[in-house]
Amino acid sequence: METNQLPLEDTSFMDIPPRQRKEKIISALKDKFDFQNAHLKTVNNKGDGILSKCFNYDAPNQVKELGIYPFFKVIEGMNGAHVTIDGRDLVTVSTNNYLGLTHDPRVIAASQKALDDFGSGCTGSRFLNGTLSLHKTLERELADFIGQEDCIVMSTGYQANQGTIACLLGRQDIAFSDRENHASIYEGCAVAQGKTVRYHHNDMDHLEHLLKKHSDVDGKLIITDSVFSMSGDIANLPGIVKLARDYKASVLVDEAHGLGVMGDRGQGLTHYYNLEKEIDLYVGTFSKSLGSIGGFVGGHSRITEYIRHKASAFIFTAALPPASVAGVTAALDILIQEPERLKKLQDNTAYIKKGFFDMGFQINNNQVPIVPIKIGDETLTLYFNKLLFENGIFAGVAVSPVVPPYHAMIRSSYTSCHTEKELDHILSTFKKLGTDLGIITQ
Ligand SMILES: Cc1ncc(COP(=O)(O)O)c(C=O)c1O
């Protein structure tokens, strides 16, 4: 093969029997780019200073030269399940706009009105000069919807996790955190004064083992995503709540991907299991089903009042701007008033999952619209993604360290606004490319 030629550009690969083709392709790709060892190849070697790591960091360039770099693609336009990139219209499966609310005219009108009424930003923290009547309205509506006494609207979901955990986890306390939890939970645990132990993903035996081991500790907090953002797994919330009761621990659930998706009205996994009164902290984000930016934490008003006065990530940052707050409030109203959106999302999810399953891809059999297509090898995953892009599909990839080494995946996700025709196009493209690359053999 020529220097930067990619495997399927060499037609002789198609003569290899499908069952052996994948390994041959991986090996051909590895000759061009060795993902696991890319960091060892230094380029500028600018001394030992703190910045030498930047000058020597060359992995992105190597991937770009090969033409399979998937990140920071510039989106020139977007609407519903479509994006425009490089002047081309693509169907996106790289989105968390689960209910298609980002372009709803009512959401846009509400944002525009807030912009007119309150201006472009709060120019200060909620604590001092950034609490608008808009924030208070959204907090009341959200608390009602998720079944918690009170809520605090923060500037991102990341900060909601980070700020809440960091201020609650005192020196003597321990957090028990699922290994697959979101980075913002890791970050909150890392900056907190207390200790964190990680239990194997969704493994109640391991969680119990750790709770038992630390049973002498008074302050215990179990932390879990409700829906895990990469695998699309659902947390074993009944198991967690039971262990929390048995071992006198509190529970924080991050409903970033559960809100608008799980439960009969989209209130999240806590409601799906009727456990909203059994958990202590409900964290969420506006950057997914509610189509904007921002985050929140809900719980007993004594707890939220403490967080409101203690969380650095809330106090020392500017408040969520008026247009976003009003847009989220309008989106929440639509979510409540139009349950057919959730129904359509569930139908689309069932349709696409059956399609992938029938093709031979291993996927989760649940109602979560995140469908990870597990490939394993990182470079093969980047290559698959490039081919999808060329075939009109904009997908996301998850490679190490976001997922463990050799567990790379195409992370695809679906919305209520994908049409059946688009879903069929996605399925047939995955089938063709998956077969060409020897990832599925039928
Ligand atoms: C599980 C989970 N928690 C928290 C966040 C952070 O949310 P935000 O985008 O509002 O910062 C995300 C977003 O990727 C997420 O997937």
Please tag this protein with its features.
single chain, 442 residues, alpha/beta, Aspartate Aminotransferase, domain 1, Aspartate Aminotransferase, domain 2, 2 domains, seven-stranded mixed beta sheet, four-stranded mixed beta sheet, 41% helix, globular, binds pyridoxal-5'-phosphate
Could you describe the 3D structure shown?
This protein has 442 residues and is an alpha/beta fold. The protein has two domains: 179 residues, Alpha-Beta Complex (Aspartate Aminotransferase, domain 1), CATH 3.90.1150.10; 233 residues, Aspartate Aminotransferase, domain 2, CATH 3.40.640.10. It is 41% helix and 15% strand. It is built from 16 helices and 14 strands. The strands form three sheets. It has a seven-stranded mixed β-sheet with strand order 4-10-9-8-7-5-6, sandwiched between helices. It has a four-stranded mixed β-sheet with strand order 1-2-3-12. Helix 5 runs parallel beside helix 13 and helix 6 runs parallel beside helix 7. The longest helix has 20 residues. The model has no long low-confidence stretch (mean pLDDT 95). Pyridoxal-5'-phosphate binds next to helix 6.
How would the blueprint of this fold be written?
Blueprint: H1 18-32, H2 52-56, H3 59-66, E1 75-79, E2 82-85, E3 88-92, H4 105-118, H5 133-146, E4 150-154, H6 157-168, E5 174-178, H7 183-191, E6 195-199, H8 204-213, E7 220-225, H9 237-247, E8 250-254, H10 269-272, E9 281-285, E10 295-299, H11 301-310, H12 312-315, H13 322-337, H14 340-359, E11 370-376, H15 378-390, E12 393-394, E13 396-398, E14 408-413, H16 420-436
Helix pairs in contact: 4-13, 5-13, 6-7, 8-9, 14-16
Bound molecules: pyridoxal-5'-phosphate (PLP).
Pyridoxal-5'-phosphate is lined by residues 156-158, 161, 182, 184, 225, 229, 254, 256-257, 285, 287, 295.
